Amino acid sequence: MSLLFKPIQLGHLTLDNKIIIAPMCQYSATEQGEITYWHEQQWANYALSGAGLCIVEATAVQAEGRISYADLGLWNNTQRDQITALLKKVKTLSPMPFAIQLAHAGRKASTDKPWDGRGQLPPESPQGWQTVSASDIGFNSTDHPPHALSGDEIKVIIQDFAQAAIRAVAAGFDLIELHAAHGYLLHQFMSPLSNRRKDEYGGNFENRIRLTLEVFQAIQHAVPENYPIGIRISATDWMDHAEGWNLESSVGLAKALEQLGAAYVHVSSGGLHVQQDIKIGANYQVPFAKVIKENVKIPVITVGLITEAEQAENILQEGEADAIGLARAILYDPRWPWHAAAQLGETIAIAPQYLRCQPHGLKALFKAYT
């Protein structure tokens, strides 16, 4: 059996294979942060994909924590109840577990939809609001400066992550991923390029990772014992700057999270600074995952321009990661796991309604869900 199609354990959750649908913002919620029909068809599509796990998009724990006014939220019980109803329907399609990524955008909030311009909307805009961050340093020089959070405001955010986690469990999600990547709030606290604080949340490495660890622990205390919690991080800021967040910092963070009981580390990169210099190419983020994997015993998920089955399999065979995250590739090809199974000579479980589409000459490719 190929490694890609072997089961993997994330905490107490067992996945049928090592293909992870990575969280991808859809910018298709109502302005109240509620799901729409788009989410219904999208999540159903994910459920039928054959992947081992789906992590749905970054979901804000506060209204002010959304990236855009069209982002999904889980800061109230109406949102929870609507997600609960949808998740129940989606889970009738397949046994694939679903996870949610809890997030706060910080200074990168209050934006337009990507296809409508991407720019930040000022607080006086009907669809904009005042952003917050570790310090009053904007992401772009033209942005309205964020409000530097006070100690009491930080406590509220920590509690809101915990409350969103309680709602996520009640809604039926099988796992929670904490979003600490891509230049959003937790990453803003971790990087010296965006954190100029002089209190216990700024300065040295231990202070800058404090908020991420406190949020993780607050979620941990809010959910049932042994409920799996993973985290997504940016391994580097991609800045030629000695003071930026880098791979060494990420290794230190991963070790601290492992000690707290994290189910896995999901390794991405970048997103903190407009002058980042990312060297994009196939497998461009895999070396970061490899180094982190060498330093922790918990599973490491890698992501980033992984598009082919053999490419994914080779990453696992080389021991560079424990699981493969797919984002754009699975948007382009929603049946990517089926095609990967065919290319690697594996059998994949699918909905029985689709068994008749078995390709000629590949009689052992499909089996029905048990």
Automatic annotation (TrEMBL):
The family database entries (Pfam families) matched by this protein are listed as: Oxidored_FMN
Q: Which cofactor is essential here?
A: FMN
Signal sequence, start to end = none
Stretches assigned to the NADH:flavin oxidoreductase/NADH oxidase N-terminal domain: 4-344
Molecular function via GO? FMN binding; NADP binding; NADPH dehydrogenase activity
Keywords, comma-separated and alphabetical: Flavoprotein, FMN, NADP, Oxidoreductase
Q: In terms of domain of life, where is this protein from?
A: Bacteria
Q: Write out the ranges of the annotated region (Disordered).
A: 109-129
Q: Indicate the segments annotated as coiled coil, or none if absent.
A: none
Q: What is this protein called?
A: Oxidoreductase
Its taxonomic placement starts with: Bacteria, Pseudomonadati, Pseudomonadota, Gammaproteobacteria, Moraxellales
